[in-house]
């Protein structure tokens, strides 16, 4: 009989809507149950409610009924997999072919020590080349004679930016016709460099804001030309060398081999002195406190210059440095939430840069407050810090107080803290006190009158810090290896060995030794070259090698995949962020940083390749240090990857026989074969199209044999062996079976050897899995999970529902083949089937009903009889679903939900998913993706005037009051100093065009995955929503990753509160006070991950301000050069002021009125102290 219509709160036959659930055999609800009002009653109390005498309606099925349905589902899946999966048959095939392969063992300790030794040898060859270069550079410069009258036409060199500048009709060099001294070269494509190169010359890159015709630069070009022969000799001794670079302290970069500069689309802001490798090589680690004067005298333009200066100063710091930023007037306070020195990593520096923009000028100047705060910060020994160079950087517009009493109290007589002072803006203040502060504390005084002077003056303090290194001589000549960063010339991710180059000249006989650092020598090593030294395919799909540095940042890791290509930011992915963090991994990381050896088996969580699932697995970690470097190497192996197969196909006739099953002509009878796109041979042309790759492979195999020296014999033999083994599976199992009988779209097998065979051939048209089994999510998850792993088709919430036409949508079911040979166990393959979604949805309804088979008529209830509801007859009132371990819908008895298969279940039934989570069927794991990329937010209204310059209107000019206002005076000052310091207009435009705000930059994405919780047995409960309560039953299906759920369909919308969504959340900075510029807009979600309702998460991840209170363990470099008794501190900067002239101001105003401002020149002169 028909079930009466129901309304919200109305009574209905059968169990009352206020009935309470029964616990059955399941455990008690988890902590979330207390939030959701779960009320439980013993089974006996509920039975009368379920089957009330005389009721003429369907009742909610009893627990034993639903358990019976679950067993039927389990038996059906198991039966199909036994018949079509062919697990047992494949085991027999392997044993029958036992003479064709050997079982090899992965011995973790031996493996990791061998790889560490190979990496050490690789890097040692680069170290020897570095030392030859540094010694030669010092000798060349020492022998060089300075030329005061040198001219551009006297120097012949290849300007790496010449071609780009010639193509730019507005380039100043084109206008001046200064290309006579520039070589024109021919280049050849070199795959090792991923670039066109010329091995006969070096190339020179000079920053845009440096005048390449200055005497200092021309002398630098003159003596560094001799490095060409050393570069070429190094390459002769080691042909694997990549970029060899000399970064000069003057800003000149000379690199080999020559290649045109990769000029950006807009202004090129590259300066070698701001590259991570140069900063690390030019000085020892730093503890820096930046204090900024925000008194009322710091008006608009000056405050803007200070903010920009602080940001540029932060860019000169690396991950080995520690920093804090404070503002001061009468009192001093930190500009951000950081109350002490923090590591100068990318995320912390972003926090500082955003906070600095909120500084407001008010009050009076109090140098004492600022310096006392800075010294207190540096004296705090209860925090992690660099413990090497200590310095205070003060930005101010000027003042009279010398605060000598503060220096006497905190810094004298030892002067362990250097003080650098910066006079910012255009003013008439006496700069003598600022100069005195710097000179009295081993620092330096700089002037920043305009924005064009910021970059050069915020990085030259490195020259001062380099003095102790130069004076230390050979003791300081130690090679350091950087963490990972993006190469500016297109090599991709690299590490660089660095070695400082010192000035060995003396001013005269008996004079003091020169203290200047000439620059830093660097040699790049591509990460891909290091990866080639690691075992790839013998470790299995889930085994891998990784390496970390002293900061805990990964050098090698399969999850190191930065999305951005911004070479200005180093790649700093912590080992604990590359994996899912736990206490065991923290212990492993600490041991590796300390340079210890170790081995540990742990139970841990891993994220699936598609980032939709979490698996609990066992892993063996083994690690050793890489000697002579700052790195430590680790090896991760699952227990089932202890052994692997190595094919031994010595029979050439058998090789040919198996190879024929790779030919497309065999696909119709034997099934389609996808081969993993691996580097089988050197001459094999790669292709993203697997059909084309297979064609290239076959063509090459017709020319060479699997035993050819140009091929990887291990990969080739294993590939051919697996081709034959999977063909035998077709012959013994698949070919004689009718897939339609069990509503299967396909059967398949994938192997460690790189073969994926899909049967029948036509099913390959809809096969979307990765042809590399090691990169296929179903393959890796099947190895880590016992039983059958269901994988519904992936759906993004932004995409349209599934297309069910022509039965093309399928659900993968896979399982690993475990092979035992003697006492050795391994998993060399995964087999499975592809279910027809629509047919199995119908079958699912029958299996979860009172019918025994699909042809049996449906059971009908009479007017006076009582029946239990089932998933077929009562699908209008009863919801029955299968959900996988990630919370994604697999099957449903609701026809309208079939196109939602693969979606996170909360999008299908929000309150039921929330109930499952609150009752511990699912556990949530939150993590952060620190390698995401976010597009910049579109800029607001932009004018044509230089940024920061006030442009008066006609009404302003006609207003007499305006001529006497502060705005007019400020405009005069801006124009005056913009003309005196030519780079003001051009540099500001450069910053506007090339600034991080206009580029895609790194950001953080919050990810939330769900996985099965502690509940394993049958469980019944009620979702209490007042008058709209819902009964539900949930039970795990044995030997699968499925959860069987039966529930009453929802009546009302009150139960929709608290929705779990499938989403990847962009971390957004909550608006502070005062609010900064809007954050970058989030990119589209990369992968579907389950997440709570979107809400702003902290800037750059999980509460950055709290994380710095519990910093992760790290160790700085082993050496520190911050003091030398013979250091000469007399060169500490000289000031100069530019009082405004009334005549000049009047002239400038006339120019403004006429609209004829002179064209500015972009270059700035190199600092005078750079005369060599």
Automatic annotation (TrEMBL):
Compartments (UniProt record): Membrane
Membrane topology value: Single-pass type I membrane protein
VWFA domain ranges (all copies): 287-465
Gene3D superfamilies on file: PAS domain, von Willebrand factor, type A domain
Gene Ontology CC terms: voltage-gated calcium channel complex
Keyword Metal-binding: yes
A GO term, aspect molecular function: metal ion binding
Region (Disordered): 1-31
Keywords: Calcium, Calcium channel, Calcium transport, Disulfide bond, Glycoprotein, Ion channel, Ion transport, Membrane, Metal-binding, Signal, Transmembrane, Transmembrane helix, Transport, Voltage-gated channel
Keyword Ribonucleoprotein found: no
Family as reported in the entry's similarity comment: Belongs to the calcium channel subunit alpha-2/delta family.
Protein known as: Voltage-dependent calcium channel subunit alpha-2/delta-2 isoform X3
Organism: Sapajus apella
Lineage start: Eukaryota, Metazoa, Chordata, Craniata, Vertebrata
């Amino acid at each position: 009989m028909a079930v009466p219509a129901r309304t919200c709160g109305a009574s209905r036959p059968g169990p009352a809507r206020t009935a309470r659930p029964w616990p059955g055999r399941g455990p008690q609800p988890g902590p979330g149950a207390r939030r959701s009002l779960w009320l439980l009653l013993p089974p006996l109390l509920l039975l009368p409610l379920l089957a009330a005498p005389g009721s003429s309606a369907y009742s909610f099925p009893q627990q034993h009924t639903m358990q019976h349905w679950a067993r039927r589902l389990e038996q059906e899946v198991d039966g199909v997999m036994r018949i079509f999966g062919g697990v047992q048959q494949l085991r027999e095939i392997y044993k029958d072919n036992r003479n064709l392969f050997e079982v090899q063992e992965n011995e973790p300790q031996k493996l990791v020590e061998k790889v560490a030794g190979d990496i050490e040898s690789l890097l040692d060859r680069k170290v020897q080349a570095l030392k030859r270069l540094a010694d030669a550079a010092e000798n060349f410069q020492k022998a060089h004679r300075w030329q005061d009258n040198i001219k551009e036409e006297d120097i012949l060199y290849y300007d790496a930016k010449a071609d780009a500048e010639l193509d730019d009709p507005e380039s100043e060099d084109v206008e001046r016709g200064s290309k006579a001294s520039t070589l024109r070269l021919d280049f050849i494509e070199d795959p090792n460099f991923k670039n066109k190169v010329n091995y006969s010359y070096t190339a020179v890159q000079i920053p845009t804001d440096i005048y390449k015709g200055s005497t200092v630069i021309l002398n630098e070009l003159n003596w560094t030309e001799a490095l060409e022969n050393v570069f070429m000799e190094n390459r002769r001794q080691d042909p694997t060398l990549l970029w060899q670079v000399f970064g000069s302290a003057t800003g000149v970069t000379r690199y080999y081999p020559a290649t045109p500069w990769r000029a950006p689309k807009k202004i090129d802001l590259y300066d070698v002195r701001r590259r991570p490798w140069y900063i690390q090589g030019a000085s020892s680690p730093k503890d820096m406190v930046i204090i900024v004067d925000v008194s009322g005298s710091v008006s608009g333009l000056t405050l803007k210059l200070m903010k920009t200066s602080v940001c540029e100063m932060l860019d000169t710091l690396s991950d080995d440095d520690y920093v804090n930023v404070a503002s001061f007037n009468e009192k001093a306070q930190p500009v951000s939430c950081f109350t002490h020195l923090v590591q100068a990593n990318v995320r912390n520096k972003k926090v500082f840069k955003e906070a600095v923009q909120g500084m407001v000028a008010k009050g009076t100047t109090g140098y004492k407050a600022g310096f006392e705060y800075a010294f207190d910060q540096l004296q705090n020994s209860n925090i992690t810090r660099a413990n090497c160079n200590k310095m205070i950087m003060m930005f101010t517009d000027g003042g009279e107080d010398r605060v000598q009493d503060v220096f006497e109290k905190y810094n004298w007589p030892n002067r362990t803290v250097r003080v650098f002072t910066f006079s910012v803006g255009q003013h008439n203040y006496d700069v003598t006190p600022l100069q005195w502060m710097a000179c009295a504390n081993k620092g330096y005084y700089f002037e920043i009158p305009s924005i064009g002077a910021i970059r050069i003056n915020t990085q030259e303090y490195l020259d001062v810090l380099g003095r102790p290194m130069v004076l230390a001589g050979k003791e300081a000549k130690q090679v350091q290896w950087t963490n990972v960063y993006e190469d500016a010339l297109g090599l991709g991710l690299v590490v660089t060995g660095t070695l400082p180059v010192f000035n060995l000249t003396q001013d005269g006989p008996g004079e003091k030794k020169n203290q200047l650092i000439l620059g830093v020598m660097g040699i790049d090593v591509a990460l891909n070259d290091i990866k080639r030294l690691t075992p790839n395919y013998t470790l299995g799909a889930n085994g891998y090698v990784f390496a970390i540095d002293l900061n805990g940042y990964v050098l090698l890791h399969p999850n190191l995949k930065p999305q951005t290509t911004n070479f200005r930011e180093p790649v700093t992915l912590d080992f604990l962020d590359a994996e899912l963090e736990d206490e065991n991994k923290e212990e492993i990381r600490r041991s590796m940083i300390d340079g210890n050896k170790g081995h540990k088996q742990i139970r841990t969580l891993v994220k699936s390749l598609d980032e939709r699932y979490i698996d609990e697995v066992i892993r063996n970690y083994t690690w050793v240090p890489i000697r002579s470097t700052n790195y430590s190497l680790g090896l991760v192996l699952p227990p089932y990857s202890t052994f692997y197969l190595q094919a031994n196909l010595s029979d050439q006739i058998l090789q040919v026989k198996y190879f024929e099953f790779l030919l497309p002509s065999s696909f119709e009878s034997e099934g389609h074969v996808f081969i993993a796109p691996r580097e089988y041979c050197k001459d094999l042309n790669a292709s993203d199209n697997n059909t084309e790759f297979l064609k290239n492979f076959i063509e090459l195999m017709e020319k060479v044999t699997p035993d050819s020296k140009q091929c990887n014999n291990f990969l080739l033999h294993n590939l051919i062996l697996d081709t034959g083994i999977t063909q035998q599976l077709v012959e013994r199992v698949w070919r004689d079976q009718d897939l339609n009988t069990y509503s299967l779209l396909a059967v398949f097998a994938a192997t460690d050897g790189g073969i994926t065979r899909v049967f029948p051939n036509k099913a390959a048209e809809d096969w979307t899995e990765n042809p590399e089994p090691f990169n296929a999510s179903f393959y890796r998850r099947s190895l880590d999970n016992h039983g059958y792993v269901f994988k519904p088709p992936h759906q993004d919430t932004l995409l349209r529902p599934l297309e069910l036409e022509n039965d093309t949508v399928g659900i993968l079911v896979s399982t690993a083949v475990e092979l035992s040979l003697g006492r050795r166990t391994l998993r060399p393959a995964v087999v499975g089937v592809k279910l027809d979604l629509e047919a199995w949805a119908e079958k699912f309804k029958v299996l979860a009903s009172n019918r025994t088979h699909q042809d049996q008529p449906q059971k009908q209830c009479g007017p006076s009889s009582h029946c239990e509801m089932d998933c077929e007859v009562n699908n209008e009132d009863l919801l029955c679903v299968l959900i996988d371990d990630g919370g994604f819908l697999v099957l449903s008895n609701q026809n309208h939900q079939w196109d939602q298969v693969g979606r996170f279940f909360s999008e299908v039934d929000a309150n039921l998913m929330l109930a499952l989570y609150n009752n511990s069927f699912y556990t949530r794991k939150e993590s952060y993706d620190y390698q995401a990329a976010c597009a910049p937010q579109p800029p607001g209204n932009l004018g044509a005037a230089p940024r920061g310059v006030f442009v008066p209107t006609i009404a302003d000019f006609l207003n007499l009051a305006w001529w006497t206002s502060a705005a007019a005076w400020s405009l005069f000052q801006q124009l005056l100093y913009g003309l005196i310091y030519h780079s003001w207009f051009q540099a500001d435009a450069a910053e506007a065009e090339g600034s991080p705000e206009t580029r895609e930059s790194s950001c953080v994405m919050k990810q939330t995955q769900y996985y099965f919780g502690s509940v394993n047995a049958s469980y019944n409960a009620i979702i209490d929503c007042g008058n709209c309560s819902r009964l539900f039953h949930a039970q795990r299906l044995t030997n699968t990753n499925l959860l069987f759920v039966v529930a009453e369909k929802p009546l009302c919308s009150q139960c929709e509160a608290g929705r779990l969504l499938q989403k990847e959340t962009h971390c957004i900075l909550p608006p502070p006070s005062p609010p900064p510029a809007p954050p970058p807009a989030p990119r589209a979600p990369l992968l579907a991950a389950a997440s709570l309702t979107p809400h702003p998460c902290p800037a750059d991840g999980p509460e950055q301000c709290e994380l710095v209170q519990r910093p992760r363990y790290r160790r700085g470099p082993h050496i520190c050069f911050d003091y030398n008794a013979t250091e000469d501190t007399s060169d500490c900067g000289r000031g100069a002021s530019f009082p405004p002239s009334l005549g000049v101001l009047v002239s400038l105003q006339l120019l403004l009125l006429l609209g004829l401002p002179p064209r500015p020149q972009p270059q700035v002169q190199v600092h005078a102290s750079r005369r060599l």
